[in-house]
Amino acid sequence: MKSIRDAEVRHQTVLLREDYNVPTDKDGQITSDTRIIASLPTIKYLIEKEARVVIISHMGRPKGKDPLYQLDKVAERLSALLGKNVQKTANIIGDDVKSVIDQMQAGEVLMLENVRFDPRENSNDPEFSKELASLGKLYVNDAFSASHREHASVLGITQYLPSYAGFSMEKEIIELNQLLDRPAHPFILLQGGAKVSNKIGVIERLLDKLDVICIGGGMAFTFLKAQGYAVGKSYLEIEKLDVANKIMDMAKNLGKKLILPVDFLVTDSLEHSTHREIVAFDKFQDYMIGADIGPSSVELFKKHMLYGKTILTNGPMGIFEKEGFGTGTLDLYRFLGNFRDTHVLAAGGDTSAAIEKFGLSSRFNYISLGGGATLEYLEGKELPGIKPLL
Ligand code: 3PG
């Protein structure tokens, strides 16, 4: 991969793609700056080399210009973290942007407005890509988490400028490749999340490398239903029962252990519950909604992970976002956070949100910054934003 280390960045205007698609509250305040912090090594390196740093990022999925998704707060937070003013433009391209860039001094940092305010970003429009590229001399992609998108600032721009990977991008790829190419055994997947359909690719790709797969979260109900158990009103992908059966057959044929929860925390309502109890996996009644795995399942999963040398965790064990349904996820993430000689990697947007909510971020070896991008990479797909950097 062409690294930023190999680029002649000194005194150049460098277009740096970051992913500042950060979560915000209803007032637009940033609730997690993990992605901004992850971008600091690349930005500091460029400042040190006296480059003029022009940052391109998206935020959200706006339909045209939308004040909710302006990048002003991100620029402010980045300024605070860098201890250096980060100017922000009101536009993405155009003469006013060009004239601000022309006036930049060596080592200064500028942030363009949300690149998705222009619909030509998502359509990877060649003219828009060219106009973006005309703002600088070099392009650095440090946005692994956006690199599964065939967008102008990720893919199109690389047609027009020498393109390199930033430090955060490199780190992601090293971590994920280590997991894919040389996992130390036993290698265990703690798989959660609601949808079998979203995770099937990762499970299929990794199955022959894995020793044990523990399945929790909403998707466990699709597996249990496929085995003929009642799951009440729990989340279910009825059209994916064949997929669940296929995974169970594949695991059996390959001699891999596939472990399902043995109990659940159930409720009568996710919004206004009047009743909660722990029930065994084979005792669901019609009104019950499984909202978290139960304590015996937590202990069972721990027992299987205890001797793991590589553990990938992807997707929460229950609806951790809702009060009272996060215990299974919290207990297991605390447990994972205590490993010292085991390589523990957390992947996926909900997983990292849960780890952050529980204040466990510093306890993990590595938390991938990507959501969809990480899953696609683990599935073995070639990401369009990475190919031009090779
Ligand atoms: C992410 O948060 O996963 C990336 O920023 C990509 O966002 P998108 O799914 O809106 O393209």
Mind explaining what this structure looks like?
The structure is a single chain. The protein is built from 13 helices and 15 strands. The protein folds into two domains: 4-168, Phosphoglycerate kinase, N-terminal domain (Rossmann fold, 3-Layer(aba) Sandwich); 183-379, Phosphoglycerate kinase, N-terminal domain (Rossmann fold, 3-Layer(aba) Sandwich). It is α/β, with parallel strands linked by helices and 390 residues long. The model has no long low-confidence stretch (mean pLDDT 96). The strands form three sheets. It has a six-stranded parallel β-sheet with strand order 3-4-2-1-5-6. Strands 9-8-7-13-14-15 form a six-stranded parallel β-sheet. Helix content is 33%, strand content 16%. Residues 19, 21, 61, 145-146, 149, 349, 371-372 line the site of 3-phosphoglyceric acid.
* Unreliably modeled segments: none
| Order of H and E elements | EHHEHEHEHEEHEHEHHEEEEHEHEHEH
CATH top level class name of the largest domain: Alpha Beta
CATH topology of the largest domain: Rossmann fold
Major sheet details: 6 strands, parallel
CATH superfamily of the largest domain: Phosphoglycerate kinase, N-terminal domain
Number of domains: 2
Q: Count of helices?
A: 13
What CATH architecture of the largest domain would you give? 3-Layer(aba) Sandwich
Instruction: Report helical residue fraction.
Output: 25-40%
Give the distinct bound molecules: 3-phosphoglyceric acid
Percentage beta strand: 15-25%
CA-based gyration radius: 23 Å
Numbering strands along the chain, what is their spatial order in the largest sheet?
3-4-2-1-5-6
* Class inferred from helices and paired strands: alpha/beta
Q: Strand tally, please?
A: 15
Mean pLDDT: 96
What is the overall shape? Answer: elongated
